[in-house]
Amino acid sequence: EAKKYKNSVRLFSPSMQEKYLGRIRIEQALRKSLDKQEFFMVYQPQLDANGCIYGVEALVRWEHPEFGLVSPAEFIPIAEMAGIMPRLGHFILATTLREMKQLQQELGVCFQVSVNISVRQFMEKDFLEKLTREIELYRFNKIALCLEITESLFIEDIDYILPLLYKMREIGLSISMDDFGTGYSSLNMLRTLPIDELKIDKSFVDTLLDDTAAQKMIQNIITIGKNLELHVLAEGVETNAQEKLLKSFGCDRFQGYLYAKPLAYETLKDFLKSQPLN
Ligand code: C2E
Ligand code: CA
Ligand code: CA
Ligand code: CA
Question: Quick one: 228 exposed, middle or buried, by C-beta within 10 A (0-12, 13-18, 19+)?
Answer without folding.
Answer: middle
